[in-house]
């Protein structure tokens, strides 16, 4: 452990001169493993429907992000592909804009700003960054041209972190009085997750993908729950630089309050849907 700490310190010192005036753009490929067990043995789904569902799940689980950063600030944005003509965003578009947006992080104040849209209303989430107790291990590996060091931490899962949910394996599901199965009886959520990060002191900034950071070097790979985010390209100090600024439009709100509002709206939508279903029956 002493050797790895000395290694980190030496690289950080030799790289510090460039960190005083550093700007970079890192591309990350994010992939989530999705439980497809609900497709197995389902006679109501034709082979064509199953293929189409699997293709849509694959598209939803694979995304590309760009992290623009300087010494103290970063901006995390998703590269969104153009939709096929005549194809609406629908439910997936609603969930994406409600549960994630461009995330600005200020490592000096340990705060973040994120703009999200929910049912036609724009919110501006301003809150503190999660503080993780990173444990730097002695394990190293090569990621591209950089030496990466492994670090782990335990994180409390966000109330709306979909990667923390999974389908229940037991068949004994509780029923509502009207005989319907609750969504909460079909899925379960882990309260905490172990996060594994690989960072490089060769780029001495405390940034990383999504809400993660706080290590003595840029995070090149991160694994949390069922999602892996891997840096596939880094451009340092290009001539053309983008501004790294937070969004400013929207009703300011804390993350916990936003999550509570979202869950309330989802419950209202669920009740209206059940009401219409009963009416048709």
Task: Please characterize this protein's 3D structure.
This is GLPGLI family protein. It comes from Nonlabens agnitus. Residues 1-19 form the signal peptide. The protein has 281 residues and is of the alpha+beta class. It has one domain. 26% of the residues lie in helices and 36% in strands. A 12-stranded mixed sheet has the order 7-8-11-12-13-1-2-3-4-5-6-14. The longest helix is centred in the C-terminal third of the chain and has 26 residues, at 255-280. The radius of gyration is 21 Å and the shape is globular. The protein starts with a helix and ends with a helix. The model is unreliable at 12-18, 83-96 and 171-177 (pLDDT under 50).
Outline of the structure:
With 281 residues, the chain is of the alpha+beta class. It is 26% helix and 36% strand. The strands form two sheets. The chain has a twelve-stranded mixed sheet. The protein has a two-stranded antiparallel ribbon with strand order 9-10.
User: How would you state the average pLDDT, rounded?
Assistant: 78
What strand line-up does the widest sheet have? Answer: 7-8-11-12-13-1-2-3-4-5-6-14
The share of residues in helices is 25-40%
Q: Termini separation (Å)? A: 66 Å
Count of helical segments? 5
Structural class: alpha+beta
Strand-residue fraction? 35-45%
The total strand number stands at: 14
What kind of sheet is the major sheet?
12 strands, mixed
InterPro entries: GLPGLI
Protein name: GLPGLI family protein
Keywords: Signal
Signal peptide: 1-19
SSE layout and pairing:
Blueprint: H1 2-19, E1 23-32, H2 47-61, E2 62-70, E3 73-79, H3 90-99, E4 103-106, E5 111-118, E6 121-128, E7 135-143, E8 146-156, E9 165-167, H4 183-186, E10 187-189, E11 192-200, E12 218-224, E13 227-236, E14 251-253, H5 255-280
């Amino acid at each position: 452990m002493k050797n790895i700490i000395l290694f980190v310190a030496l690289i950080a010192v030799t790289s510090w001169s460039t960190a005083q005036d550093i700007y970079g753009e890192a591309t990350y490929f994010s992939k989530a493993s999705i439980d497809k067990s609900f497709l197995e043995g389902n006679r109501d789904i034709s082979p064509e429907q199953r293929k189409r569902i699997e293709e849509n799940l694959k598209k939803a689980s694979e995304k590309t992000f760009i992290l623009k950063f300087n010494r103290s600030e970063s901006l995390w944005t998703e590269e969104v592909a153009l939709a096929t003509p005549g194809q609406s965003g629908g439910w997936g578009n609603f969930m994406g804009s409600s549960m994630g947006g461009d995330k600005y992080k200020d490592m000096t104040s340990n705060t973040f700003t994120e703009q999200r849209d929910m049912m036609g209303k724009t919110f501006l989430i301003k809150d503190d960054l999660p503080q993780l107790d990173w444990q730097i291990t002695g394990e190293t590996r090569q990621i591209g041209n950089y030496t990466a060091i492994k670090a782990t931490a335990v994180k409390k899962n966000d109330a709306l972190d979909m990667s923390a949910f999974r389908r229940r394996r037991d068949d004994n599901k509780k029923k509502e009085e009207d005989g319907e199965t609750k969504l909460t009886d079909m899925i379960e959520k882990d309260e905490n997750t172990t996060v594994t990060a690989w960072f490089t002191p060769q780029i001495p900034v405390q940034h990383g993908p999504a809400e993660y950071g706080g290590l003595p070097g840029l995070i090149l790979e991160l694994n949390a729950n069922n999602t892996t985010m891997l840096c596939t390209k880094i451009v340092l100090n290009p001539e053309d630089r983008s501004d790294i600024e937070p969004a400013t439009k929207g009703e300011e709100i804390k993350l916990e309050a936003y999550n509570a509002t979202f869950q309330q709206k989802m419950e209202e939508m669920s009740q209206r849907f059940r009401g219409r279903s009963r009416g048709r029956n």
